[in-house]
Structures are given as structure tokens and as C-alpha cells.
Write a structure and sequence with these properties.
about 180 residues, alpha+beta, 3-stranded antiparallel β-sheet, 9 strands, about 30% helix, about 20% strand
Length: about 180
């Protein structure tokens, strides 16, 4: 499959596994899983095409279960699911990529999940830069994750390495220019 087809199929799969399963006639279980056979039928894919989309997705957004008979999005859901990820102690710092236009709201309200279940944080500054660059000129916030955890905030790490937390109050990061 060419790159355009792969991107189109990946976006459709992301929509149905993260945000709107009903749009494809699918129902996620409580942990976000859906039978592969149902996805194939709903999206008009064959198994090899689905496996290629999962393998080639540069963000590793999708995962098969251990039996290969179910699939889910690794994180980023706007529909309620419990991924069953254990709480983990985060590294000392994590990173969040955004754009300058969002800094005013972030300074006032902190990082909020918006229409998703969690705030997404990156283990590396490079990854956060890439995330922020999707919407314009990126700005990277350094989040004092270990301090947050010591203060009782809970962290999880998704199957593809994205760190998840309910929110990041402003006191746990510095904004560019020394604000925060």
C-alpha cells in the first residue's frame, strides 16, 4: 500500500478505535479492545492490510492483544476505556509539545486532557518537539514528573511509551521565558 493509502487507513482506524467506534458499527469493550474480525469487516480491510497499518504507524498507536484476535488504540481515547495500565513512577522529567498560541491557557489552567482521558507526555524532548510541530511552531514544556508523583499524581505508560496522567497543574512546569 502506498503512503497516502496507509495514512488514510491509519486515520480511519484511529477514529474508530479512539473516538467514534459507532461510526463503523463497532463496540469497544471496557479496555478498548475490539475483535480484529469486526474491524476487518467494518473497514473493508484484509488481515495483511491491517497488520501493515499497525506496523507502519510511526507513533505505534495500535496494538494487537497476545492472541492477535483483538486490537485497540494504545492511548488517546475520547471514549471511556480503562487500558488497565499499572501506575508507574515516572522519570524525573517528562516533556509536553505544544504551540505558542496555547501557552496563555496552559499558564492559567495547566495541561488538561481536553476531550481525551489523559494528558500525553513524552520521554524525550525530540518526541515532544515532533508532537508540537503537528500544529505549528513547537514549544516544549519540561514537566517535573517525579515531583508530581511525590505529591500524589498518578502516571501510567502506554504500550507505545507515551506517559499518561490526569492533568499537570502549572506549578509542575516552567513556561518559555521563565513564566509558570
Amino acid at each position: 500500500m502506498d503512503d497516502k493509502q496507509m495514512i488514510r487507513r491509519s486515520k480511519r482506524l484511529s477514529k474508530v478505535l479512539r473516538h467514534d467506534p459507532a461510526s463503523a458499527g463497532l463496540t469497544l469493550d471496557g479496555a478498548g479492545w475490539v475483535p480484529v474480525a469486526d474491524v476487518l469487516a467494518a473497514l473493508g480491510l484484509d488481515r495483511a492490510e491491517l497488520e501493515e497499518v499497525v506496523a507502519r504507524n510511526n507513533k505505534r498507536r495500535f496494538a494487537f492483544d497476545g492472541t492477535g484476535t483483538r486490537i485497540r488504540a494504545s492511548q488517546g481515547h475520547s471514549v471511556p476505556v480503562d487500558l488497565g495500565l499499572p501506575p508507574l513512577d515516572p522519570p524525573a522529567v517528562l516533556y509536553h509539545g505544544t504551540v505558542a498560541a496555547a501557552l496563555g491557557a496552559i499558564a492559567a489552567e495547566g495541561l488538561r486532557p481536553m476531550n481525551r482521558q489523559h494528558v500525553h507526555l513524552s520521554a524525550t524532548e525530540d518526541t515532544a518537539l515532533a508532537v508540537g510541530a503537528r500544529r505549528g511552531r513547537p514549544v516544549v514544556l519540561v514537566v517535573r514528573a517525579a515531583v508530581m508523583a511525590a505529591d500524589g499524581h498518578v502516571f501510567h505508560r502506554s504500550e507505545n511509551g507515551v506517559w499518561l496522567t490526569a492533568g499537570v497543574p502549572p506549578r509542575y512546569f516552567d513556561l518559555p521565558g521563565g513564566r509558570g
